[in-house]
Amino acid sequence: MTELRCDQTVAWSALQGHWQAHGRDLDLRTLFHADPDRVNRLTIQAPEVLGDLSRCKWDVATTRHLFDLARECQIEARRDAMLRGEVINLSEGREVLHTALRAPKGQAPHSDQVHAVLDQMLAFVERVRATAGGSQSGDIHDVVNIGIGGSDLGPQMVVAALDPFVHPRLRFHFVSNVDGHDLAEVLRRVDAKHTLFIVASKTFTTLETMANAHVAKRWFLEQGGQDIARHFVATTTNVQAAAEFGVTTTFGFWDWVGGRYSMWSSIGLPIALALGAEHFRSMLAGAHDMDGHFASAPLERNLPVCLGLLDLWYRNFHGYASRCVAPYHHGLRRLPTYLQQLVMESNGKGVDAHGAELNCSTSAVVWGEPGTNAQHAFFQMIHQGTDVIPVDFILIKRPTFSEEAWLSPALRTMLEKQHAILLANGLAQAQALMWGKTTDEAEREPRPSTASKTVPARELALQRTFPGNRPSLTLLLDELTPKALGALVALYEHRTFVTGALWGINSFDQWGVELGKVLCQEVSSRMQGGELQGMDAATTAMLQRLR
Ligand code: F6P
After folding, report:
1. Cis bond leading into 372, ω under 30°?
2. pLDDT in tens, 478-487
3. pLDDT tens figures, 140-183
4. Is 304 helix (H, G, I), strand (E, B) or coil?
5. What global pTM score does this model have?
6. Which positions ≥6 away from 116 have C-beta within 8 Å?
7. Whose CA is nearest to atom 16 of ligand 1?
8. Which of 48, 95, 208, 345 is catalytic?
9. Which residues line ligand 1 (CB under 6 A)?
10. Any catalytic annotation for residue 517?
């Protein structure tokens, strides 16, 4: 396939013309006044997720140019190549087939091996869950996942998000950092007789994970633990290394699953233990439905495609250097961190897939916190700061409170009312960002009682002015179920793919993390007393202080 990079296309020049002519001056308020159909036109229903893109800073001409760009870059052919299992991760010589992990039997490449491991893993899960919380030695109360990056963030995010679905007698802990405080904090709290350690590592060589796994194993033996086979399992592509470490129960996966795309594989074992087989399958089904939408919806009604194009428009034309993810759901508090790896490790690249330098910026910084906490921390800057930061508002229509003894009908009603307040906050933030408040409006408001008498009214009003015309988008889910969450995560995966493909980069390697890993080995040996000569002056000086 001859692939064109976005900046080599005719559509890119047209987009530049559009930007110069009026694209850069778009005002959301004017766009809304001029087009009563705007919300309808820019709302897309994808499986489980409704996207309202009407508050995004684009107009009909912008989107027309962007779809031209997508077509000229052959986004559909590229997508199909990925889904078919072509080797699109060229620098690592691999297929990219996380979508195969959530496809029903026989509907995607590698189906037999995928379903064999899935069935085996879910059978194990049901065995552990059947006696979870029991008093016999070996009945599991605590699950400790030892893994980092893609072997940590997905499972951690999902287990937190789906708390009402989690087995009531299982507690989950996630240890990732090589900082011993991380593991120590967990080991202090658990009982070897009732703990299951999952050593999760695609490569089974990652320094942090191996260091923590060795300490965990030693701790287990020191505590009198005997049955390593029952208390340690591994999830990895490197089954042999896991066996050498002493783990006999291993659930494998394959090198065509990128670490940050691996929560659907055996790396999702903590998720499956938390939710059970049925809900795990439902999460896979939700993701698969989103895959189907991505694969078949026309570009103009294809939510991941539209979001990917939007990201390019914002980054390369508006120059927005970051985007904020604000989920209005406490359960989704780890989602921004999860997305940081997904988006920035995938698309934080400076050269294209053939090594040629890029002429345009790539990944924006992704960050965020759940609402309403975010409002009381950094939303000040998003409303009135000098940088424009688009926000993804993620709203969940209905709360999910599981049946629990302490939750009386009266308390349930009170908590459900709080959900309405939560949603109102999300809507109000998007509204405030878009409409803003003029200085005249601010001046007409009552003077704040605490303001110093010496400050003139106009000066006060200027400080209480909101520029408005600040973009956001809203993703709406009916309920935060395993299925809906699966769809949401798959949506973000495909959004990331689309932007990466347009930029012509390989979204599936991560060479940028390698150099630091190699240098760390060198620094580590010098830290322990080796020769300092040959190190740069700054590192040497700091090593001397630290030794
Ligand atoms: O450091 C980057 C990285 O390779 C990620 O891409 C990956 O998710 C993480 O490390 C963990 O790797 P592994 O699962 O092989 O331990």
Report:
1. yes
2. 999 999 999 9
3. 999 999 999 999 999 999 999 999 999 999 999 999 999 999 99
4. helix
5. 0.97
6. none
7. 201
8. 345
9. 148-151, 201-203, 206, 209, 259-260, 345, 510, 513
10. yes
